[in-house]
Design goal:
single chain, Arc Repressor Mutant, subunit A, 12% strand
Length: 339
Amino acid sequence: MSKQAASRSIIASFGALTSSLPRESETSTDRDKAASGARPHTRVSAGIIGATQRSLAEIREERDRLQELVAKGTSLELNPNQIDPSPFPDRLADDNEVEFESFVKLIREEGQKVPIQVRLHPTTQDRYQVVYGHRRWRAAREIGASVKAIVVELTDAELAIAQGIENSARQDLTWIEKALFASRMEQAAIRRRDIKASLSVDDAEMARFRQVTRAVPLLTIERIGRAPRAGRPRWIALAEAVVRDKDALGRIEETLADDKVGSSDARFKLALGAAAQLTGNRGAREEIELRTMAGDVVGKATFGTEVRLSFKPEEAAFREFLREELPALMARYSARREG
């Protein structure tokens, strides 16, 4: 097994760990109960707490049990309207729903292949909460079909850890989504080592998560959105700008309120620009890579209160070209300014 496959094996095992398989008679009974809206009794007991300390062999073995369980058809058929989302949101709104609509179309035509995982709702009778599989659950609800699910017994801490591990395996959370999810787990008093294990991050990254989520309000982050291209350095730059200038958040909110269109990446760029408008944000800056038409990086330009250009040692010809072109560039700027 490759290193990548081994990692996925670990991830797949969380949230559905069991010491024995249910009998077929139990499965059939519970399916009938599920169809009638009654609470099923066939559940897969999950042992997430301490799971990060399990040996790789143990996790693989429990993964194999889960696969056998699904192969036997022991997942339940639940009404999606009886299911609520996870109490720990880990997603920001997408810029458009085109990709999701394609996913719904696929489910409608081919059916749901992989069960979602849910837990019994901790406070409401005959309801469930998603552990992971939110998109499959949303698709089933939109289609009006039942959803295949494996019901597990999880505490809040166990649910958050299992959810984080599953999302980390898919590697489709943006940096700010991971930061928000880590913050929510911390607020739920989940141990730091379990948060780090679930998101595959270290202490330094946890500190960066806290730096941004404590400086930039949740409402502002939600208005910006997922910003998949922003990444850690630019979010940290935004947080630093907000900390340095007490008026930065007001400018950001005003700018985002005026922005009626655009992607989340475009909104982030507007927010960063608004935060860096005044000289009080002297440290706020943006770096742009200088690339050839073939995509090769030859240097970078850094924009802040001053502009800095840096080039690779072997790019002497480009430096000379830029030196020769600067007078003409200045002339164009002067013409625009005076015109």
